[in-house]
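Please produce the structure of this protein holding zinc ion.
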Amino acid sequence: MRDQSLDFLKSIVAAPSPSGFEQPVARLYRDYIGKFADGITTDTLGNVSAIIHPEAKVRIMYAGHMDEIGFIVHYIDENGFLFFSAIGGTDVATEIGQRVMVHGRETVSGVIGRKAIQTFKPADSTQVPTLKDLWIDIGATSREEAEAVVGVGDAVTVQTDFTHLRGSQVTGRGFDNKAGLFIAAEVLRTLTAGGGVHPDVGVNILGTVQEEIGSRGAQTAAFNIAPRTGLVVDMGVATDYPRARNEDAGRLDLGRGPGLWQGPNTNPVVWRLLREAADDVGIATQPVAEGKASPTDARLLQTSRGGVATGILSVPLRYMHTPSEVMCLDDVQATIDLVCAYCRRITPDIDFTPW
Ligand SMILES: [Zn+2]
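Below is the modeled complex.
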């Protein structure tokens, strides 16, 4: 992976983007892709679309959501402590004791506090805490002092650094789904550098908003763009950690390539084309089976307007929705290569009807 690309990944991971507050990451995405796209639009909800061949009648829509989970301040007490709710699904046990950034009038540091273990009653050590048991301490001593820099409605993210582990594994916050946004940018760069796609096929490569609270950005973007086929790239729950039961959850390993979804969430023609593309360019994929509606942007994309022939690729991720997610950069690169190979295979005459 190029140093410049890795720097872009680090920059979008560092930037805050809880659902509804995606603008800092959207700005970085627009700046990075500016020189590769034929056009860039930002819609009313905040979805950013980079376009190849804007005039083409047949369009591919790539969706990588750029929002991350986070928190929102809902009350400040008279002593300057901040009380907060979740944006998206969070595992409270992983939040206690974390350092956070409160993105207010200024971005200020804080910590997530809870009563000390020394004061626990017997029941406290067996009970799982909820967000109601926690608060954010920014060091203020009064409501007035806190309100000078932050307020109700401000977004909060956990402070973590992008860190390399052994081999190609990296850890950080919000890889779900800044990795998908990174892949979007790199697909655009690679397609533009490598001869593009069929001249009568357009590609809209989107950073979508508000996936973590119901794929609301994908819904409006799919309606606007009206694509014939779509690809959703998001993170998949890796099941290669200690005591994971593959019998219960299936199998998805880090470092063995993207998960390729099969079943009711995907179009069989897209699935076949992705398989052929993967074989052609020598990329390993891992089968993902899901019988319920997908908890990704694909759910809204697939059922937009008269239906969109949709495929889903999952980048394996350990510890999803925690401050220390772990992924493998080889999987990220393999997904970039596979999406490029898929886009290059699309011609205007392909019939996606599942006959
Ligand atoms: Zn996601």
